[in-house]
Amino acid sequence: MAFFSSKLNTFRVSLIFPFLVLGLTSCGSGATVPQPPEPPAPPPQDEVGPVGKVSLERVTAVADLIVVGTVADIASNDARTGNVYTLVTINVEQSIKGQAPQQVSVRVPGGVAGGLVRVTTGAPSFKTGERDVVFLQKPEGGIYTVAYGMFGKYAIDSSGMVNNMSLADFVNQVKSILAIQQK
Known about the structure:
Layout: H1 2-28, H2 56-62, E1 65-76, E2 85-97, E3 103-109, E4 111-113, E5 116-118, E6 131-137, E7 145-146, E8 153-156, E9 161-162, E10 165-166, H3 167-181
Antiparallel strand pairs: 1-2, 1-6, 2-3, 4-5, 6-7, 6-8, 9-10
């Protein structure tokens, strides 16, 4: 029995030894071991908030118009083109940046039209009657869109809170950001 045991151990060593030698010599002979790719550089801190969302400073900077308002109407377009979008009408209560008319129309990608449903990741969602602070961009000759999608819309809850602060405090924070950006 001892004979088979020693032969088995010799057999194991003879199988493993060449792989060890091959591994050691290939590492020492100038051969390179593939390295994992470098991780991408993080985005500039002024563009991304603590949880990976666009910062309030960045959204404020790119917005042409910032309003507090109530969603008055939501209508989807005719889907015959296959390009489904929703048109949201907001009754403006207060303009924080820019000159807002009494009503603003906002185009949001996605929606339901003609039996076709299109969901767009990152697009904000609206409900008739809800109050929001909305950061808007207007492409040249176009209709307003929400700056940075869902990151450009802040819902005002039934107690008047926005982002865990009162609406007045949130508006003042945005105005402070605007004052710093205008310097």
